[in-house]
Every structure is written in C-alpha cells, then in structure tokens.
Design a protein that fits this description.
Number of domains: 1
Strand content: under 5%
Radius of gyration: 15 Å
Shape: elongated
Distance between the termini: 14 Å
C-alpha cells in the first residue's frame, strides 16, 4: 500500500462525509425537530447520500 492510495482514500472519505453526508443529515435532523420532515425531503436527501456513497466506492474501482 503506497501513499497515493492512502491519500485517495482519505480524500474520497472526507468528500463523502463532510461535503455530502453530514450536511444532508444535519438538514434532515433540523427539519425533524421542526416537525417539517416529509417523505419527499427524506427521499431526495437519501438519494444524494447514495450517490455520494457510489462516488466514494467508484474512486477505488476505477484505476
């Protein structure tokens, strides 16, 4: 395992967690506490998280 692979993994993980997953979860939590969390909001943000996860996984499948 070399340093390039490690940097690639850390960059992909940070991009997924800090740029995609965390904002979606915080927003949904805020809407939940306000009592305004509805199915379309949940579906849209879950789709965003799944696409971000696919991008995270794709970083390692494409060489």
């Amino acid at each position: 395992m070399n340093i390039v692979f490690f940097c690639r993994f850390v960059g992909a993980f940070c991009g997924f967690s800090y740029a995609i997953c965390l904002p979606c979860l915080v927003y949904m939590r805020k809407r939940y506490l306000e009592g305004a969390l509805r199915a379309p909001i949940i579906a849209f943000h879950v789709i965003l998280i799944v696409l971000g996860l696919a991008n995270f996984i794709g970083q390692f499948l494409i060489l």
